[in-house]
Structures are given as C-alpha cells and as structure tokens.
Amino acid sequence: MKRCLLAALLATLTIAPLLAQAPPAGWKMRVDRSTSAADPDAAGTIKFVTMGTGFHATNPQAATYFNPGNTAAGAYSLKGNFTLVKPSGHTNYYGLVFGANGLDGAGQNYLYFLVAQDGTFLVKHRAGEATHDVVAKTASDAIKKPDASGRSTNALEIRVGADKIDYLVNGTTVGSSPKTGMAAKTDGLYGIRINHQLEVHVDGLTLAKM
User: 66: which of 104, 125, 150, 191 fits an S-S bond (Cβ 3.0–4.6 Å)?
Assistant: First the structure.
C-alpha cells in the first residue's frame, strides 16, 4: 500500500510541472530562421509555454506567436507586459504583433511594435519575407534596460485610432504613425513577436475597444 501511495505521489510531482508549462491551448507559432552567417540562430528548439498567468518564450530562433481566435478591428488598445529574462549578446527585439493576416502561409502580412535591450524601439510592416520601416529604430528613455541580473520589464501598448496609431512604453507615448500606406490595415490577428537568442515572459496580453 505504501509503495502504491509513493508511486502515485511521484507521478503527481512529475506531471505537475509539465502541466504548468504546457503549450498555450490554441496558439500557433511561425518560425523565422536566420539566413545571416554574421547573425546565426542559437542551437536548440523554441519553447513557448503557459507559465503563471502568462506565456514564457525561449527563442533560439525568432518566432511570431498567435492564436487564430484573437482578432481586433476598428479602434482598439492592445497591451502586454514583457519581461526580458535572458538578453542576447547583441541587440534583438520583442513585442506586439497586430493587423496580421495570412500568418500560416507565404502571404503573411502584419505590423509589429518591438523594443530591445539597448533602449530602442521600432515599428515595422511585414509582407511575405520583406520588411519595411513604419517608425525607424528610435531610442527612448521610457524603455527600461536590463538590470544587473539581465532582467527588465516593459509594458507595451498600441492605440489604434481612426487616423493614427500611437505606440506607448510604460505609459509614455514614444511614437505615432498615420494610419495610411503600410500602416493602413490594422484589422486582423494580434499576437507576440520574439526575435532569436532571447528568453521573454509575457503577461497581461489584453485587447480593449476604444
């Protein structure tokens, strides 16, 4: 009897951590492998799991994470808290994806607002494998850089209005862009983008109508 109880206890202890770090239900990922010999991917496989009330991404390769059920349209606010757990040896970006379509195929199209460990942010548009600057790489004092332990937490927000998009970090507007041209299409899927060689925890991913 004691042996049975011990076996059941050990099974519970073994299974519990796995359940606590299972892949988020309904979420998919699109991997973008580096083709640069000067900036290669790290070894290993991507891990994207549920942790606490959020998600934890370990990215030897870059990836876009999305749930096909998560869509936004019209005027809205998209928020997420990003904790950089392990920075890379050089500047790499992470943050929010919005206005996304075709993420499962060659015709992927989306906008993304990202920050980096060096205190800069950028906003880009992606169409297929091509990317275009919406807001070029810009430094901002609002962005928290890693502390002595290598960690930093930044609250990112996108506010989509009728004719412009505002980009906020920790409650401060760091940039804006007109809702025209490459940034005209903001209806679609929303999600997360983590570039390679980073480990990031994401919490508080929320969408609200404005």
Answer: 191
Please check whether residue 141 is in contact with residue 198, taking contact to mean a CB–CB distance below 8 angstroms: no
Q: CB of 204 within 8 A of CB of 81?
A: yes
Predicted model pTM: 0.88
Decide: residue 67, CB within 10 A, 0-12 exposed, 13-18 middle, 19+ buried: middle
Q: Tell me: the pLDDT tens digits for 35-89?
A: 777 777 788 999 999 999 999 999 999 999 999 999 999 999 999 999 999 889 8
Q: Where in the chain are the domains?
A: 24-209
Q: Where are the beta strands (DSSP E) in the chain?
A: 28-32, 47-51, 54-59, 62-72, 76-86, 93-101, 109-116, 120-127, 130-139, 152-160, 164-169, 172-178, 188-194, 198-209
